[in-house]
Design a protein that fits this description.
There is one protein chain. The chain has one domain. The termini are far apart. It is an all-alpha fold. It is built from 19 helices and no strands. The longest helix has 28 residues. Helix 1 runs antiparallel to helix 3.
Length: about 375
C-alpha cells in the first residue's frame, strides 16, 4: 500500500513540477502583445493550479512521513529533529534565492528598503516549510488523534476565512516586515499563509482519509472517500463558483484571486478531480519506471535549478529573462520549455541515481555545495 500511495503522490508532484517549468517559461518569455489573448487566459487559468498542487501534495507527504515514522514523529525524537532541520533548510532556501546581493557585506550595508521587502517576501518554499513545521509541532504537542484532527480542520478554515480580513486590514504595518509578509500579498509575497496554507492542510486531511480507508478496505472491503473524490470535488467546485459570484456582488473591493474563499474551494475541487484521475491511472498502469515520478521525487532540486536558469539570481548567473526577455511567441516558448524540461529531467535523474547508488556521496556533494555557497557569500565584498 505504501508503494501505491507514494506512486500516485510522485505522479501528482511530477506533473505539477513539469507544469511549473512551463508556467515560468511562458510568464518570463512570452511577448506582451500575446498576453491578452484567449489562449493566454486559458493557459494562465490552468497554470494557476501548479502552486495549489504542490501545497496539496505536501500535505500527503506529511501523512506518509507520520505513518512511516510512527511515534518518532509524535514526540521530539532525533528523527523528528532531523526532519525539521530539512524543513528549515527548505524554508531558508526560499529566502536565500531572493538575497539582494551575493555578498553578506553588501546585503547588510547596501540593501535598500525595497531590496529588503523583496527579500522578506514569501514564496512557495517558505509557505510549504513554515506550514509543515507548524503542523509537526502541533502533532508533537497534541497526543490525541481526535484533537489533532479537530485542530487541522480549524486551521483549514482559519486560513481560508481570515484571508479576506488580511486583504482589507493589513497587519504589515503593525509587525516587522519579516512577519508581516506571511499574512497577505500586498507587499510582494506570492504565497502567504493566508489562504495558501489551506491547500496543504486539505492535503493532510485528504491523505488521512485515504490512508484510513485502505486499512478499512483490507478488513471489510468498504471504501468511501476515495470513491467519492469526483463527487466531493464537484460539490466544492459548485460551491466555489457560487461564492465567487457572491463575492463579486458584495465584496468587489477585495482581490478575488488572492483571498476569496470561493477561489480556494473552486481550486480545491479541481485538485480532488486531478487526484482521483491520477489514483485511477496508477491502478491501471504497469508499475514500472516513470519519468514523471523522477520529477516528483526531485521536485525541490528542479524548482531551485530552473528558477535560477529562468529568472537568474544575485549570483549574476546567465538567465533567460536577461538574455531573451519577453520576445517569444507560443511555439518558441514551448520549444524552450521542452528543452529546459529535458535538461531538468537529466539533472533530476542523475541526482536520483547518485542518491540510490551512493547516498553518502550525495550528501557530501550537497554539503560541499552549501558550504561553497556560504563561503563565497561571506567572502564577496561587492
Amino acid at each position: 500500500m505504501a508503494k501505491e500511495r507514494i506512486g500516485y503522490i510522485d505522479q501528482f508532484r511530477g506533473l505539477a513540477t513539469i507544469f511549473m517549468v512551463e508556467t515560468h517559461v511562458v510568464n518570463a518569455l512570452l511577448r506582451d502583445s500575446l498576453r491578452g489573448s484567449f489562449i493566454f487566459g486559458t493557459l494562465d487559468f490552468i497554470n494557476g493550479f501548479v502552486a495549489p498542487s504542490f501545497l496539496f501534495v505536501a500535505g500527503f507527504s506529511f501523512t506518509l512521513a507520520l505513518n512511516r515514522k510512527g511515534d518518532a514523529y509524535r514526540s521530539f525524537s532525533p528523527e523528528l529533529w532531523k526532519h525539521l532541520k530539512r524543513l528549515v533548510f527548505i524554508w531558508a532556501t526560499g529566502y536565500l534565492m531572493h538575497i539582494p546581493y551575493f555578498s553578506l557585506l553588501k546585503t547588510v550595508h547596501g540593501s535598500t528598503p525595497e531590496d529588503m521587502t523583496a527579500f522578506f517576501a514569501i514564496d512557495i518554499l517558505q509557505c510549504i516549510a513554515a506550514t509543515l513545521i507548524l503542523v509537526h509541532l502541533i502533532r508533537t504537542i497534541v497526543k490525541s488523534d481526535r484533537t489533532f484532527n479537530i485542530i487541522l480542520w480549524g486551521l483549514f478554515w482559519l486560513f481560508i476565512l481570515v484571508a479576506p480580513v488580511f486583504g482589507i486590514f493589513d497587519p504589515y504595518q503593525a509587525t516587522h516586515e519579516f512577519i508581516g509578509q506571511y499574512f497577505n500579498r500586498l507587499h510582494g509575497s506570492l504565497f502567504p499563509l493566508f489562504p495558501w496554507s489551506s491547500f496543504l492542510i486539505a492535503g493532510i486531511i485528504s491523505s488521512q482519509k485515504i490512508t484510513f480507508e485502505k486499512v478499512v478496505d483490507a478488513k471489510s472491503g468498504k471504501r468511501r472517500f476515495g470513491q467519492r473524490l469526483p463527487l466531493i470535488g464537484g460539490i466544492l467546485i459548485t460551491a466555489g463558483i457560487l461564492l465567487v459570484l457572491v463575492h463579486k456582488t458584495f465584496l468587489p473591493q477585495i482581490n478575488l484571486y488572492d483571498y476569496a474563499p470561493g477561489w480556494f474551494l473552486l481550486r480545491l475541487g479541481v485538485l480532488l478531480w486531478i487526484l482521483s484521475a491520477i489514483i485511477w491511472y496508477e491502478t491501471k498502469r504497469n508499475h514500472g519506471w516513470s519519468s514523471v515520478k523522477i520529477f516528483g521525487r526531485e521536485s525541490f532540486l528542479v524548482y531551485v535549478a530552473h528558477i535560477l536558469f529562468v529568472y537568474g539570481s544575485s549570483m549574476r548567473n546567465i538567465s533567460l529573462v536577461e538574455s531573451v526577455g519577453e520576445t517569444l511567441n507560443y511555439l518558441q516558448c514551448f520549444g524552450v520549455f521542452a528543452g529546459l524540461t529535458m535538461a531538468m529531467f537529466l539533472l533530476a535523474y542523475a541526482w536520483s541515481t547518485l542518491k540510490k547508488r551512493n547516498y553518502d556521496l550525495s550528501r557530501l556533494v550537497q554539503y560541499a555545495f552549501v558550504a561553497s555557497f556560504f563561503y563565497l557569500f561571506i567572502k564577496n565584498s561587492y
